[in-house]
Structures are given as C-alpha cells and as structure tokens.
Amino acid sequence: MIPTPQRLGRYRVYTETDIELLLMIKEVKRLGITLAQLRSMLPQNWYPLNAQNVEQFLTEHRAHLRQQIHVLNDQIRQIDNCLSELGTWPDSPLKGR
Which long-range contacts (CB under 8 A, 24 or more apart) does 9-17 make? Predict the structure, then answer.
C-alpha cells in the first residue's frame, strides 16, 4: 500500500506520510476494515493521504456498515417470525413463550 521506503544501510527510512498511512491502516483495521477493502475504496491517486480521500472512504464505509445493519435487522426479524410460528406447533418447546 505504500511505496518501498528508502534505505539507510540496512534500515528502512519512512517519511512522515508513510507513518501517517501506517497509523491509518492500524486504525482502519481496528474498525474492521480489511486492507483489500481499503485498497478497493481509495482512488488510484490517493497517496499521499489527504483529508478529502480519508473522509470519502470513511463515509462510504459507514454507509456500507449501515446497509449491513439493515440486512442483519431484517434477518433477525425473519428469525423472530420463524420462532413465533414454531411456537404454534403442537410439539413445540416454545409453546406459551
């Protein structure tokens, strides 16, 4: 995700921008964002980082999470309906709940 850093002898030398990117990667991983998602959502010319690219990426990811929440809530409602219907079966252990 970052260009190959320069070397000073055996040591890699990272720029301030490289460090910002590494910190952002660490943070987005904490938010449950994979590197593949990060790569796919950032524009081709995203490097070096700028606030507009980060804001757009986070806004899109938030929308994606909200969509997932909506889908999960629908699935929970469907499961609740199934459980309610099971409660009407004569041999159901859920009867009377």
Answer: 17/47, 17/48, 17/49
Rounded CA-CA distance 82/32 in Å is 31
In-domain check, residue 1 = no
How many folded domains does the chain comprise?
1
- 91 found inside a domain: no
pLDDT at 51 over 70: yes
In terms of residue numbers, what domain contains 53? 6-86
The SS3 call for residue 21 is helix
Burial 49-85 (b: 16+ CB within 10 A, else e): beeebeeebeeebeeeeeeeeeeeeeeeeeeeeeeee
Mean pLDDT, range 51-76, rounded to an integer: 90
Task: Sort residue 25 into left (φ over 0), alpha (ψ -120 to 50) or beta.
Answer: alpha
Domain membership flag for residue 35: yes
